[in-house]
Amino acid sequence: MARVDLAGFNVDADLLRELAASHPEPVELTPETVSAAYARISRDSRPVGELRRISRKEVEKARASNERIVFGLGHASVAEHAVFNFDVLEVSRLAIEALEAHRLASYTEKSQRYVRLGEDYAIPEEVQAKGLGDAFTEFVSRSFSRYALLVARLMASGVPDKLAGEDARYALPLAVHGQLGMTCNARSLEHLVLRLNSSPLAEVRDLARSFLAVAKPVAPSLLRYMTPGPYHLLREADVAEVVRDLLGPPAAPTPLEGPTDLPPTGVRLVNATADGDARILAALALPTLGTDYLSALAAIRALDDDGRARLYAAVTARLGVHDTLPREFELASMTFEMVVSAAAFGQQKRHRMSSLTTWPYDAALGVTIPPAIAEAGLSDILLEGAAEAEAMAQRLGGPADPVAAYALLNAHRRRCLWTLNLREFYHVSRLREDEHAQWDIRHLTSAMADLVRGAFPICSGHLGGKDSFAARTAPAG
Ligand SMILES: Cc1cc2nc3c(=O)[nH]c(=O)nc-3n(C[C@H](O)[C@H](O)[C@H](O)COP(=O)(O)OP(=O)(O)OC[C@H]3O[C@@H](n4cnc5c(N)ncnc54)[C@H](O)[C@@H]3O)c2cc1C
After folding, report:
1. Residues 86, 76: one domain?
2. Is the distance from the beta carbon of residue 271 to the nearest atom of ligand 1 less than 6 Å?
3. Which atom, in ligand 1's list, is nearest to the CA of 114?
4. What is the pTM (predicted TM-score) of this model?
5. For ligand 1, what atom is nearest to the CA of residue 352?
6. I want to staple 445 with a disulfide (CB 3.0 to 4.6 A). Which of 131, 308, 396, 432 is the partner?
7. Is 43 a catalytic site residue?
8. Residue 43 — very low, low, confident or very high, per pLDDT cuts 50/70/90?
9. Is 377 left (phi over 0), alpha (psi -120 to 50) or beta?
10. What is the pLDDT of residue 106?
């Protein structure tokens, strides 16, 4: 029978320090020995438990071995066996976005939906350096006053307490602090620190230093190449120069009430796998047909719509609300162009099994006003905050300066492309079209789902939130 031994698991660092302090001999606590032992598995026939014991006894040798294998030979996945947990505190929403852009990590973040926010925010060092610290502080303080006013007025108009806070936060800027728990392995951490180090924002570069300050002492052999080179620092400017040269200067920004270049839903489908339904169904039929893939595709294409629908019905007949669609659904993918509020983006970015290509927040794309705020006649309060935020952002350098985004609000918007396959979109749809989802991302996801139904009419048959699953799958009649 196969044997599995527990070789390690994450334990609270405070407890580890207490245990080490009470240990009779000095003990070095490091995840590196697990990586070093696993690195030897490929060339050493001794049982892996013994390899771990050897690594534990000779930590310096384990470190030298990691450096040779991970960095010398490029066997980098070995570094993935060392895993860290980090408490990340006093970090702005804007810096959290830079952090959570990294997909190979786990995050759990304080929700601005569920937690009533106190006046806790970053005053970026670039803002101080421009001599605008006091003006920025006054601006953020007024934003918190507007937040409190919106909460009170929304509640007075009958909006429940939780929803009032959830919508009032559209008046808060991206400088507001959050906190999160984060888990990632040493390989991901090295990449993440490199990328954070290339940020134009001092706060984000500080975050990189903070990660290293706590992780490097416990895993020095696994964290090495984290200094950005010219490729990381200058690539965007190089591209911009050639684009200007080839295609002329950027279009003059036109102030918009909303994303008028997109449909009113704020989203359009810019690319979808041609004949995605047939491609998925062909892969599902292939093992039974016993042919190659292209022959299976030709056979599925030759079927009429009823035949294809019957095949899809067989795939999904026993599907439960928590089940994922089979991997064949990854054969159809799509790219959406969208203009989203910072509040919606904060949720969208958490879907790691997808590709998000983003552009900076841009006041010219207008603001998103929560329907409850509009219905309660409170839009002016939010619009006053947006105007003040835009004036502050202008003083901070305007759209050309990344620091300006600290002043923009959760209501402000950015443009992005979101590329994902149909299997992942099912997951997004289950979570984000559900009754528990926040209204902004729910509207966005429903609009996306309509577009997906147009692109893949058969295989999109079970899209929808968890709450509507039973109704969708109930037998007719
Ligand atoms: C109603 C609601 C409330 C929420 N509230 C909060 C909140 O308060 N705070 C907060 O931080 N987040 C919150 N979230 C976000 C939520 O925790 C998820 O981060 C988000 O929904 C993305 O889902 P996902 O991780 O399943 O998706 P993806 O990242 O796209 O992953 C897709 C699937 O891949 C697998 N997967 C991906 N990465 C891993 C991994 N590292 N390990 C194992 N499996 C993996 C899982 O099966 C996952 O479902 C909330 C979400 C919803 C819908």
Report:
1. no
2. no
3. 8
4. 0.94
5. 29
6. 432
7. no
8. confident
9. left
10. 98
